[in-house]
């Protein structure tokens, strides 16, 4: 319940990221929920123990839940959130997943399949008819859009409709788009998953995940299992995630503008065979001739950091196939560029200079 003088909505999402998840407005109270480091709480209330509840999770969950339009649960990492959702699939049921989904999601599914827990069907999400056909007999349709790192975009409304017609649930990994660009629950999806590590927290300094659902039953099951399995974030992580999320809209605006410009300029370079940019978001993929050329480029920059991950204020790049676990259908020379919020001219001079020296 909000007290007099408390923030009331509904607001636009650029305001929600700033205003949601605040403590009650009372004299001498801070504007942000302070970090609460607690294992047990004094008995007699709703919290009881640090595996069940923490005020910093709640503040973060309130904010992301409001942004995505559902109940949010925070997890220790994006992959912990994904494991919690895949655990909803009953023994022997079928899961449809993009062949170019995040490698960690594919890894979990391959492991579950190897142990006879689920059946996995990999699909090419650029072929909507094939995805729609695969929904038949599926229990869970797992989508990621855009995909990491192929940057393919899923026709979410078509896939959600087909999945529901077949009685399947739909989960969408919304890490790349963020709720400011795409809100899968509004499109009818049952579950949204985030690696909070990326854009939501935005500063490359924490690992955290989240699930959001508008389905009360799913929300209740997930909460009970998080209580018992314990894949919870620390209070510091939740506090940093919410602090980072306050600037999500301005960071994303700047990073997207930078990414569009970098993609446009890379496409003019003869050393780059192909540039992939879905037209939104801040990740760009550049395909170079081979692994060697790509490796040399990623090691020759001085402003861009050769590092994995994405979604931070600082620009990073890496050749994806340097990971043994990356999908074999991702080109050896594909470099994923996670564009940050630096001055675009400095970003370009660094990238172009490195290409001149190594391309
Ligand atoms: C990074 C990432 C994940 C995994 O999240 P962690 O926080 O690293 O566990 C899941 N999905 C996508 C799309 C990602 O980019």
From TrEMBL:
EC number of the protein: 2.5.1.48
Molecular function terms, GO-annotated: cystathionine gamma-synthase activity
Keyword Transferase applies: yes
Enzyme class: transferase
Alphabetical keyword list: Pyridoxal phosphate, Transferase
Obligatory cofactor(s): pyridoxal 5'-phosphate
Gene3D superfamilies: Aspartate Aminotransferase, domain 1 (3.90.1150.10), Type I PLP-dependent aspartate aminotransferase-like (Major domain) (3.40.640.10)
Keyword flag Calcium: no
A Pfam family assignment: Cys_Met_Meta_PP
UniProt similarity note: Belongs to the trans-sulfuration enzymes family.
Record PANTHER family: CYSTATHIONINE GAMMA-LYASE (PTHR11808:SF15), TRANS-SULFURATION ENZYME FAMILY MEMBER (PTHR11808)
The protein's name: Cystathionine gamma-synthase
């Amino acid at each position: 319940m909000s007290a007099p003088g408390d923030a009331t909505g509904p607001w636009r999402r650029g305001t929600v990221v700033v205003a949601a998840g605040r403590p009650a407005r009372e004299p001498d109270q801070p504007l942000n929920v302070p970090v609460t480091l607690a294992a047990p709480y004094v008995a007699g209330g709703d919290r009881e123990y640090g595996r069940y509840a923490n005020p910093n999770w709640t503040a973060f969950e309130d904010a992301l839940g409001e942004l995505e339009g559902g109940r949010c649960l925070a997890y220790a990492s994006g992959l912990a959130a994904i494991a919690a959702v895949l655990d909803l699939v009953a023994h022997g049921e079928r899961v449809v997943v993009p062949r170019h989904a995040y490698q960690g999601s594919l890894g979990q599914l391959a492991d579950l399949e190897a142990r006879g827990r689920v059946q996995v069907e990999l699909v090419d999400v650029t072929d909507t008819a094939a995805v729609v056909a695969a929904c038949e007999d599926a229990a869970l349709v797992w989508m990621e859009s855009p995909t990491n790192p192929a940057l393919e975009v899923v026709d979410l409304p078509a896939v959600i409709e087909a999945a529901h017609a077949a009685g399947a649930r739909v989960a969408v990994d919304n890490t790349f788009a963020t709720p400011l660009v795409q809100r899968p629950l509004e499109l009818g999806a049952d579950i949204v998953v985030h690696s909070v590590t990326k854009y939501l927290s935005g500063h490359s300094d924490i690992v955290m995940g989240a699930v959001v659902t508008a389905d009360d039953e799913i929300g209740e099951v997930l909460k009970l299992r998080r209580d018992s399995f314990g894949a919870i974030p620390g209070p510091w992580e939740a506090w940093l995630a919410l602090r980072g999320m306050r600037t999500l809209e301005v960071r994303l605006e700047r990073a997207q503008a930078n990414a569009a410009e970098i993609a446009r300029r890379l496409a003019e370079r003869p050393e780059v065979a192909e540039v992939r940019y879905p037209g939104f978001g801040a990740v760009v993929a550049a395909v170079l001739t081979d692994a060697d050329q790509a490796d040399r480029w990623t090691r020759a920059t001085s402003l861009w950091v050769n590092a994995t991950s994405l979604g931070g204020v600082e620009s990073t790049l890496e050749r994806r196939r340097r990971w043994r676990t990356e999908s074999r259908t991702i080109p050896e020379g594909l470099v994923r560029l996670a564009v940050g919020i630096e001055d675009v001219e400095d970003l370009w001079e660094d990238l172009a200079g490195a290409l001149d020296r190594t391309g």
